[in-house]
Amino acid sequence: MKSNYLTEIALPINYHINDFLAFHQRDEMGVSEMVQQNQIKKGIIWHDNPALLTITLEDGKAQIQLDIDGDKPFYSPESLTDLASHMLGLKQPVEAFESLYQTHPVIGELISRQMGLRIYQSATPFEALNWAIIGQQISVSAAISIRRRFIQVIGIQHSSGLLCYPTYKQVIQCSQNDLRQCGFSAGKANALLNICHLIDSGILVLTIPESENEIKLLTEKLLSIKGIGMWTVNYALLRGFNYLNGSLHGDVAVRRNLQYLLKWEDKVSPEQTEKWLAEFSPWKALVGAHLWQQQSRSGY
């Protein structure tokens, strides 16, 4: 049995449609996401049911469709709108940031050239954290391959044929060896399983914090888990929690693009990057995203 729901969201005039689609098109095999022209289809778990989320972007609006497998699943229009707004980055007050910095002597030209840039989000904070763990100290292509095998091994399939990105409830049933077979190192496998157990016990809650103090508490909890470092936390906050003030000074691409922006001959160190980004609090991560994007049109 399948239930279908529809809603619609207005998009800003300068919304970066291609960048949003590119973020979800990194895996060319498309086992859990498919991007076609101006549309993304993504397999998700919706309140324990396999579901297909379809987002179609056109004429200043996003049309959202949710197809849920199962008998009488939970649904509310507010929940679907909230999910789509989150993924599209529409909860980020980028207009305030642009108004403040588009005349800045160093980054003003970059901001003006990339007006409307947002940080597109994973469907859930758990997915973002999972991706950050997978991506630790390996290439993007290697991380994509591991992510693909991970989704395939857990194997929750929607009736459309797409596989659904698992929640902690599915991952917690895996063994370390199961994850190792997907390409996880022992450390990454243990870190992910520990996170799942902490969520299951209620010790760790991956809701979107509303204050810097809540961000600090969440960061401390994550850093207390063996195998989770500051890069992982900052990337997860960036991609799953709509947090725009994380410092991405540890990211090689951010440092390389900062060197390009500043026209320095020598490479920019993490310490120099951290100090430079500090000036832009509470927008450090958004500045980092603009640095990422300045030499690339393929998403970040």
Automatic annotation (TrEMBL):
<dbReference type="Pfam" id="PF00730">
    <property type="entry name" value="HhH-GPD"/>
</dbReference>
<feature type="domain" description="HhH-GPD">
    <location>
        <begin position="134"/>
        <end position="296"/>
    </location>
</feature>
<dbReference type="GO" id="GO:0032993">
    <property type="term" value="C:protein-DNA complex"/>
</dbReference>
<keyword id="KW-0234">DNA repair</keyword>
<dbReference type="GO" id="GO:0005737">
    <property type="term" value="C:cytoplasm"/>
</dbReference>
<dbReference type="GO" id="GO:0008725">
    <property type="term" value="F:DNA-3-methyladenine glycosylase activity"/>
</dbReference>
<dbReference type="GO" id="GO:0032131">
    <property type="term" value="F:alkylated DNA binding"/>
</dbReference>
<dbReference type="GO" id="GO:0006285">
    <property type="term" value="P:base-excision repair, AP site formation"/>
</dbReference>
<keyword id="KW-0227">DNA damage</keyword>
<dbReference type="GO" id="GO:0006307">
    <property type="term" value="P:DNA alkylation repair"/>
</dbReference>
<protein>
    <recommendedName>
        <fullName>DNA-3-methyladenine glycosylase II</fullName>
        <ecNumber>3.2.2.21</ecNumber>
    </recommendedName>
</protein>
<dbReference type="InterPro" id="IPR003265">
    <property type="entry name" value="HhH-GPD_domain"/>
</dbReference>
<dbReference type="InterPro" id="IPR051912">
    <property type="entry name" value="Alkylbase_DNA_Glycosylase/TA"/>
</dbReference>
<dbReference type="InterPro" id="IPR011257">
    <property type="entry name" value="DNA_glycosylase"/>
</dbReference>
<dbReference type="GO" id="GO:0043916">
    <property type="term" value="F:DNA-7-methylguanine glycosylase activity"/>
</dbReference>
